[in-house]
Amino acid sequence: MDITPLQPSDYRAIVFFTGAGMSAESGIPTYRGKGGIWTKYRWEEVACEKAFRRDPEKVLTFHRERRLGVAACKPNVGHQVIAALEQQHPQVSVVTQNIDGLHNRAGSGRVIELHGSLWRLRCPSDGRRLEIEPGSDYPDRCECGAWLRPDIVWFGDSLDQNVITAAMESLAGCDLFVSVGTSGTVWPAAGFPQVARQNGAYSLEINPEANEISPLYDQAYRAPATQVLPRLFPSVTGPVRA
Ligand code: OAD
Which of 42, 128, 182, 214 registers the highest number of CB atoms within 10 A of its CB? Predict the structure, then answer.
C-alpha cells in the first residue's frame, strides 16, 4: 500500500481519534466484528447500570477479567508512534474511546478518555473515585459499603460534560485529524470526524474496513494501525515504554 508520509511540522495541532482497533494488535479484542466482545457477551448483562443494580457481582467479574486481559497486553508500535510524536510536536492530543489505558502506558500525556477508564472505580453512593494499577489488588466495595463500579461509560450512561468539552476544544483547534480503528457507531464520538471536517481539518482514517462514516474522511488507509502509523510519521521514533 502506498502511504504518503506526513510532516508533523506542517500542522498546528494534531488529534488522534482512536477506537478499539488501535489496541487490537496489542491483543485486546474489539467490540464488534469477528471475535468482538459484544459477540461473546450481552452488554445488557455486563455493561449497563441496570445490570449492575441487578447483579453487581456478575458485572464486576466481567470487568475484573477484562482488567486481567488488558494488564497482560502492551502498547503496540502505533501507540508508541503517537506518544513519540507528542515529544516532537507542541500540540498533539489523543481523543480515545478506549478504556484500556494503553495510550497512557505508551507515554502519551494528553489523552482524553471519552468512555472513562477500566483503571478507575467510582462509588455510586458517595462519588469517591479510586485509581487502580494494573497488577495490583483493589476492593469491590467502597468504605461506605456500596459496590464500587468501574468509572466507565456504560450503555445508557451519559458522557462526562467536562470530557466532552475538552474533546471539543481539541477538535476545534486541530488541522490534522487521524482516526484509528473505530467503527463510528457509538455517539457522540461517531460525530467527531464530522466536527473536525467542519472545522477545516485534514482528516485521515486508518482502518482495514470501511464503515458508515468513512466518506467523511479526506483519505483512508485500509490497513492495520501498526502498519500505517510508523509509515505515516517516519520522522518519529521513540523508546518502547510498556
Ligand atoms: P468497534 O469494535 O466497534 O470497532 C473496531 C474497529 O476497529 C472496526 O472498524 C475494525 O475494522 C477496526 N480495526 C480492527 N483491527 C484494526 C487494526 N489492527 N487497525 C486499525 N483498525 C482496526 O470499536 P469502537 O469503534 O472503539 O464503548 O467502539 C466504540 C465503543 O463501543 C467502545 O468505546 C465501547 C463499545 O461499546 C465502551 O466501552 C463504553
Answer: 182
pLDDT in tens, 87-104: 999 999 999 999 999 999
> Which of 17, 42, 81, 97 to mutate for ligand 1's pocket (most ligand atoms within 8 Å of CB)?
97
142/151 Cα distance (integer angstroms): 13
> Which residues are CB-neighbours of 133 under 8 A, at least 6 positions away?
119
Does residue 116 have its Cβ closer than 6 Å to ligand 1? Answer: no
Which pTM was predicted? Answer: 0.96
C-alpha cell at 204: 485521515
Q: How much is the pLDDT for 19?
A: 98
- Mean pLDDT value across residues 109-116: 98
User: Looking at ligand 1, which atom is closest to the CA of residue 97?
Assistant: 33
